[in-house]
Amino acid sequence: MSNWIIRGGAVLSGTVPAQGSKNAALPILAATLLIEEPVRLLNCPAIRDVDNMLKILESLGCTVKREADALIVDSRTADNPVLPTALSGELRSSIFLLGSVLARFSEADAPYPGGCEIGNRPIDLHLLGLKRLNATIRETGGRIRCSAAPLLGAVVDLDYPSVGATENIMLAAAKAEGQTTIRNAACEPEIVDLQRFLCACGFRVRGAGTPTVVIDGVQKGHGTVFRVMPDRIAAGTYLIVAAMTGGDLTVTGLDPEPVDTLLLKLSACGCRVDRKTDSVRVKANGRPKAVGFTETRPYPGFPTDLQPQLTSLLSRAEGTSVVTENVFENRFRHAQELRKMGAENRIVDRTAIITGVPRLHGACVTAHDLRGGAALALAGLFAEGDTEILHAERIERGYERMDRVIASLGGTVIRKEEGIGEEEKTR
Ligand code: UD1
């Protein structure tokens, strides 16, 4: 367990280079199993979820090494279709491996996936898709056992545009016999990045970014060098830091379009927003104003992964804001923690009603999940006094050394690793 103490009251300004995208890197890492040649990934973020995914790939027999800023995954040696229980339990994205392990070995054996506790996260759409591709699935003893001889292309209609299910089906279909069409596919930019990767490896995928993705099965892919897209959620989090602390912050290496729904909210709060082709600057302009109504939706709607951070910002805004969470049913646990810091909010079903207060104060709070933890870090930066965040290791699942980024912008985070008595102050 790692606890962070955040010193409140600093104005954070400066430049942050966008980190590589977690949600793009994880399915791409799963996809390396499809290719029996080394793959060189650039801009793969150094975060816990990626470390866990790499450990899982190693347990399947892949060889992984880091060389300067590249990550090299070689799946020629992969020989094991059984996913390890403990590691997969920590990482929801281990579910992507079902499709790629199945495509590689014609069988797969996986535990139910873990990850953030942000609601009941079923995998019915993943399994339905694999079944449509001719997989036989047995769910026994807490494990999912799949076999396919062979995987066959099919039309898969998704009841909901699930990001993970779309990606999993793309991975299983890449080497299947014939054509697969995914209808009502998710349109997130990370799915476009997975398509770019698969095509760079010689697979035939088109339509990503639209609701219809078409995959023509190819027997064999080849190695490639690939640069993972920038992380729009981490970038968005830092842009909110500027608004939260009254600062002036630029994220570089970022196409503004995927964060546009956030930028519109920040403008509505009164911030000055400057979009360039390859960077975004947000400059606060006094106390933020409330923004009326926001609801989370699949892309291009407002992302659920930025909802907790927006909730933090609105906690200090002038006026009342309403935020509805449509994607995950249990994603307001940070709101309860924010109340410990003096925030005024009320949760009714899937909606938070937030009455902004001029001041927050430091408190001891718990990061229940990755983005909720980031939201508490934002509130801690604004609050008067120190805020202690318990289970801050959950933030490290998705942000590359957030403590150092905060320090580079003029803030202070003291990191305490429980158990080894280590204390590290970053400012
Ligand atoms: C991905 C992202 C996550 C983000 C989410 C929504 C990764 C590694 N994670 O998660 O950060 O919050 O997209 O943008 O990319 N559902 C079902 N059955 C299924 C699958 C999903 O009912 O088989 C439901 C979920 O419970 C949830 C909704 O669909 O209510 C969205 O889930 P999904 O789009 O699949 O999210 P993830 O892929 O898990």
How are the SSEs placed, and which strands pair?
Layout: E1 2-7, E2 14-17, H1 22-31, E3 39-42, H2 48-59, E4 63-67, E5 70-74, H3 85-90, H4 96-105, E6 107-111, H5 124-132, E7 136-140, E8 143-147, E9 155-157, H6 163-174, E10 179-183, H7 189-200, E11 204-206, E12 212-216, E13 225-227, H8 232-245, E14 248-252, H9 260-268, E15 272-275, E16 279-283, E17 292-295, H10 307-314, E18 320-324, H11 333-340, E19 344-348, E20 351-355, E21 364-366, H12 370-382, E22 386-390, H13 402-408, E23 412-417, E24 422-426
Parallel strand pairs: 2-14, 3-13, 9-10, 17-18, 21-22
Antiparallel strand pairs: 1-22, 1-23, 3-5, 4-5, 6-8, 7-8, 10-12, 11-12, 14-16, 15-16, 18-20, 19-20, 23-24
Helix pairs in contact: 1-2, 1-4, 1-7, 4-6, 5-6, 6-7, 8-10, 8-12, 10-12, 11-12
The structure holds uridine-diphosphate-N-acetylglucosamine.
Residues 23, 26, 92-93, 121-126, 160, 162-165, 186, 190, 304-305, 327-328 line the site of uridine-diphosphate-N-acetylglucosamine.
Could you describe the 3D structure shown?
- The chain has 427 residues and is of the alpha+beta class.
- The chain contains 13 helices and 24 strands.
- It has a 5-stranded mixed β-sheet.
- Helix 1 runs parallel beside helix 7 (189-200), helix 8 (232-245) packs parallel to helix 10 and helix 8 runs parallel beside helix 12 (370-382).
- The protein binds uridine-diphosphate-N-acetylglucosamine (UD1).
- Uridine-diphosphate-N-acetylglucosamine binds at residues 23, 26, 92-93, 121-126, 160, 162-165, 186, 190, 304-305, 327-328.
